[in-house]
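hey so i finally got around to running the thing on that chain from the lab meeting. sorry it took forever, my laptop kept dying and i had to restart like 3 times. anyway pasting the input first so we r on the same page abt which one it is
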Amino acid sequence: MPRQPIPLLAPRDGLPPVVDTAEALADTVERFAAGSGPVAVDAERASGYRYSHRAYLVQLRRAGAGTALVDPVRCPDLRALNAVLADTEWVLHAATQDLPCLSELGLRPRKLFDTELAGRLLAYPKVGLAALVEQLLGYSLEKGHAAVDWSTRPLPEPWLNYAALDVELLVELRDALAEELRREGKDRWAAEEFEALVRQPPRESRRDPWRRTSGIHRIRTRRELAYVRELWLARDRLARRRDLSPGRVLADHSIIAAAVARPATRAQLAALPGFDTRTARRDLDVWWTAVRRARDLPDTALPEHSPASEGPPPARAWADRDPMAAERLAACRAVLQELAASARLPTENLLAPDIVRRLAWSPPAEPTPEAVAGALRAHGARAWQVELTKDRLAQTLAANRAHR
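ok and heres what got predicted. didnt touch it at all, straight out
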């Protein structure tokens, strides 16, 4: 019978006070400089509440230093802390989520270990922090405060307790995962992945972000797309100015409803779902201005159905645009699924889907293993990924070419 996990209810050293003064931060810097071994790092944002993705709490833990809960609203410059941790391995869970907001504070690791990514490479079915801690260390973490508004001040003690526990066992989890990676011969793979995270440039702003409006698949015409775009941009300006999550200003489904209905009057707009709330009515002039702008645009200024892209078109369009490319993509995906199963890791971690699409859309003229390896590297594949996939992908592309 499996052993029941032990509930982890409080930090072993007690809940530390929040670091929210220059003096307390200086003391924290001194303590962490004197600590030893890796440092566990986490950050809490106010996603779903605030427009920005800034950190509203930073948690750290290191042997010999204990746990620190830093308020980055009161202490927004953490470069001194970064300096004393420069040569230390940082342990994060799902690092890509936290690295941007940590960087805004001056916290930039030179070396890291991502426990979520390690769990993926080891093919754990669940790679959330609580799931891995339970499976590998035998403790259960309470996750009830994951989605709260961390911009709240003062932060309630139960929230702070939750935040401290997120770094309580992170280094121990790192050690358990590192040992398993070594046992399975995947430690080099993980090292390359972690190094890539450190080198990863800041995220560029997504082109035409309004195209990700939930429900946009219901939109059929370019004129309707213009309604989505103008309402989305108007909402974004309001949300930015008020530092509110855009969904709290106007829901996506309301934008889609207005685009489909194309209201002819202000009253018709006000009667649509989502525009009849007190918040939306307060800004009705803004929404009506956006609607009129979309209505009055000349046809030449309407957005295209698909944005211009440097990469291949969406895979769903390949069968019509280039049936041979669609066949190559299907064959490459089948081979990668087979290789991933053999290596015991998710297919998307063996090779990113975007890399596979780019290779299948524009394969080397002569698909030798060397040419395929070069193409994979050019598209951002790591050395271990190239090593595992180049031969079989070359064979697949060559076979597909021979069947023309």
